[in-house]
Specification:
By secondary structure, the protein is an alpha+beta fold. 50% of the residues lie in helices and 19% in strands. It has 12 helices and 11 strands. Residues 210-288 form the HTH araC/xylS-type domain.
């Protein structure tokens, strides 16, 4: 493979295993075994690539520049950069987030604050331990959201991609380069999302998250809405609904057990919540999933 132009579907079709994909976003657990077809090849991708090195040491060449990547390094490549793959990746494990370019730009709503480097070039970043944890958490959140189809999946995916854009923006710009108010609000949003994914199963009220961040519920609600276009409650309910779908379709837990784990007042409250979001009861949803799985 030499200098081919590959779209997202082309690329994922060549990856043999450990690839989770939809039309606009793909996640790849990349290693030597499932990336054999790319060995020593080169290609132009017409999608955004975010590559995180978990294990091993590997070299990529982007536009003639050799980049040696080690554990904790992150490589961001914008569309239509020439990428030369290494001859082998033995002992290397990478997490790749691949985003269709039109979708990426549709999500991106902070044009005036995002550096041009995040739009039209490539970057190698060395992440701190905290940033590595944040990236891995984000990756697993994306994978979790992609696993099960549900009413709010598209909205949840868009919010998670937006969060990733803010994460990259913060890494490349630094707080001192951004308008203070904008940077402050984006940081509040980022912290809220981080807290929400930690506590959404047990804490459903805005007050809890505002208290953890030492701000008022009104300010938290207004800031999250301004930065993301969605409310705090919308995020929490989306996470709860997604988790409920996963548990109903992939575990044998009773409706009561799921209700208790997700801290609803009772099974009836959980059933009403689920029916509001899915249009069917938890029992009916589980039955449909069993029928689909054969």
């Amino acid at each position: 493979m030499q200098n081919q132009i590959l779209n997202l579907c082309d690329f994922t079709a060549l990856v043999l295993t450990d690839c989770f994909t939809d039309v606009q976003v793909s996640l790849v657990e990349a290693a030597d075994q499932n990336m054999k077809v790319f060995r020593n090849g080169s290609a132009y991708f017409n999608f955004y690539s975010i590559i995180y090195i978990e294990v091993g040491r590997v070299s990529f060449c982007v536009n003639g520049t050799t980049l040696v990547l080690e554990p904790g390094n992150l490589l961001f490549v914008a569309p239509y950069q020439l990428i030369q793959f290494p001859e082998e990746m033995k002992g290397v494990h990478m997490k790749m987030v691949l985003i269709e370019s039109v979708y990426y730009h549709t999500v991106r709503s902070v044009d005036d604050e995002m550096p041009k480097t995040i739009v039209n070039t490539f970057l190698k970043l060395a992440l701190t331990t905290l940033r590595q944890q944040e990236f891995i958490t984000w990756y697993h959140q994306l994978r979790h959201a992609m696993m099960k189809r549900h009413l709010y999946q598209a909205s949840m995916m868009k919010n998670l991609i937006h969060f990733g854009q803010l994460f990259l923006s913060e890494l490349t710009m630094g707080e001192h380069q951004r308008p203070h108010d904008s940077g402050h609000k984006e940081n509040i949003f980022r912290i809220f999302i981080h807290l929400a994914f930690q506590y959404y199963k047990v804490e459903h009220q805005v007050q809890f998250y505002a208290d953890r961040m030492n701000i008022t519920p009104v300010y938290l609600t207004r800031t999250v809405k301004e930065v993301s276009g969605n409310t705090v409650l919308a995020y929490l309910q989306s996470m709860l609904y997604n988790e409920a779908c996963v548990q109903l379709s992939s575990t044998s837990k009773s409706i009561g057990e799921i209700s208790e784990e997700l801290r609803f007042n009772d099974q009836s409250a959980f059933s009403n919540f689920f029916k509001l979001h899915s249009g069917m009861s938890p029992v009916a949803y589980r039955g449909n999933k069993k029928d689909e799985d054969g």
